[in-house]
Design goal:
The protein has 180 residues and is α/β, with parallel strands linked by helices. It folds into 2 domains: 2-88, 3-Layer(aba) Sandwich (Glutaredoxin), CATH 3.40.30.10; 93-179, Glutaredoxin. It is 49% helix and 17% strand. The chain has a 4-stranded mixed sheet with strand order 2-1-3-4, sandwiched between helices. Strands 6-5-7-8 form a 4-stranded mixed sheet, with helices on both faces. It is elongated and about 65 Å long. 24% of the residues are buried. This is Glutaredoxin.
């Protein structure tokens, strides 16, 4: 797992966390304000990588966020860390829905009971997930023309690993099974 060390009041750390959360990247955030162990971890990294921190020291900067990649590489390059996380992210079927929707809860439970790789995006809990859903609804009239006429929301909807968007649960289940 890639680790990011920083704190929640650093503007660069906040920007990095927005990308991590939006893309659901497998990066663990070690907030130095939450635990003394994270401060110690940061200090060991800073002292153990003098060349990496040369410019930060010269400019009286702390040097966060800093990332420790899975191979142990230490970097302050957010883009490099994000790319490494994207490569490490395991493929999954994306399910867009809401915890308030009984069908969504049931479908998610079925996938999880089988131990299938599913990434749930809750349109009620997360504004970016709502935006994703609205783009899907706008860009896939073939799925939503009838749903609109019936006055329904049209969730859950699935994005398969090959990019196919469908409201067919069985197709989503089969795609998830193929990833196992």
């Amino acid at each position: 797992m890639i680790r990011m060390i920083g704190n929640h009041i650093c503007k660069d750390c906040v920007s990095a966390m927005e990308v991590i959360q939006r893309e659901r990247l497998p990066i663990e955030f070690h907030d130095m304000e939450k635990a003394l162990d994270y401060v110690k971890e940061f200090l060991e990294i800073r002292e153990g990588n003098p060349e990496l921190y040369k410019e930060a020291r010269e400019n009286n900067q702390i040097g966060i966020p800093v990332f420790v990649l899975e191979d142990g590489t230490v970097t302050m390059d957010c883009d490099a860390a994000f790319e490494a996380a994207r490569r490490a992210k395991k493929p999954a079927v994306v399910m867009v829905g809401s915890h308030l929707c009984k069908a969504c809860r049931n479908r998610l439970a079925e996938l999880k009971e089988e131990g299938l790789p599913v990434e749930f995006h809750d349109i009620v809990e997360n504004l970016n997930d709502m935006r994703l859903y609205l783009r899907i609804r706008e860009n896939h009239p073939e799925l939503y023309d009838e749903i609109r006429k019936e006055g329904r929301v049209g969730i859950p909807v699935f994005i398969l690993p090959d990019g196919t968007v469908t409201n067919d649960f069985e197709a989503a289940r089969e795609a998830a099974r193929s990833l196992k």
